[in-house]
User: Fold this.
Amino acid sequence: MAIDTTQRRLLLGILLATVLTLALLIADLARGGRADPPALRAAATLLDGSWRFRTGDDPRWADPRTGDGGWGTIDLTARPGSHDGDVGLPDYVGGWMTQGHAGYSGHAWYRRAVDVPAGGASWDILGPTLVEDGYELYWNGQLLGGSGRIGEHPRVVGTRPLRFALPAGAAGTRGVLAIRTFMLPRPGPGGDAGGLHAAPILAPRPVADGLHRAQWERTIAGYVVDAVEPLAMLALVGLILWCRPRSSQRGFLAFAGIALALMAARRFNNALVAWTDMMDLPTYSLLAKYMWMPMVTAWALAWNRWHKPAWRILDGAALAILAAQVAGATAHLASLASISRWGSIALFVLIGTRIVRGGPMRVLAPIALALITVCFFGDELLDPIGVPGIWFPFGIGVSRTQYLYAALIPLLAVLVVRTLDGPDRAAVRA
Assistant:
């Protein structure tokens, strides 16, 4: 199929936008992945080592006059070079489930004495950068702040870099630092979950300012792809809306636009939870549990229309699989959920075979469909062959799904432009 002037300009725009976006992302990952400046870390104190620890909840435990002699201990010392398996946050330690409290969820408290150096500086506590799932930080019984609300009716949110000013006059004194934590119930054994996964940091100003800035740069870099890719998906939806009246694949574009809008909303939730308190973790988990299902269905309906005419039996199969997916997730039927996932894979394979045999763009279209399939079903298709779920370029975690989207989005944009075909292209030029 010949490429006219309008298509050529659009394809050039897609290429330039892709290259510029990738360059900016790489620059941000490189910046966020840098280690904390050694001079700043040398001037601060990582409050690792042994902490007193107790499960349960009693507000009196924040008071230093309340003894903790009967408490257990937890070691917050990280192995050299350790980091979490998602963002790449440094100084990572296993949670309380790895230190004698397997299977426990709910409230727990950490306490230790902290000596604040003497001098005229004002001092801050940089809160732990990874906690399951929320926390409050107290100094000598005084609440300094925290992440989320963890009282009688907890509201837990993603943990962001936070810092808390110690009271005036804290320099040259010894105080008791208490951290009240709360973890939501976990399905299954829980792995290394539970409470603090990084120790707080004691730092004077302006050292605390620099370290806090570095923590935020790392946190932004850890989720910047989850913000940029949804924006690219929405831009692609805009391209679809512009092209659809002039396209030879209107049915495909209609459902592809729906699928992309849902994907953008789902992916952006990751950044929303990591950077703000706007969404609590139960809501995030609920959306993560169900939102992928209508996405898969929308893509099945879209690709069934790539090779005309659409087969009604494939539409029916896609909707039946959606019903099975929802039922399996709602009723916690693992076998039904697994069968429905493999059913979706089989449906995509059947649709792809049909496209290869007779659809337009029989090379690019099946590649795009294959990328979509692997994006949604990496557990079934990539885990068995040992493809890691997350890579760490520059020390920042980037998931394999994000890599796949980086290839898929420009490829879909090319396909959309290439559907401007025949007399419709003349309408565009007019």
Summary: Confidence is low (pLDDT under 50) at residues 422-430. The first helix runs from residue 5 to 32. The chain has twelve helices and 14 strands.
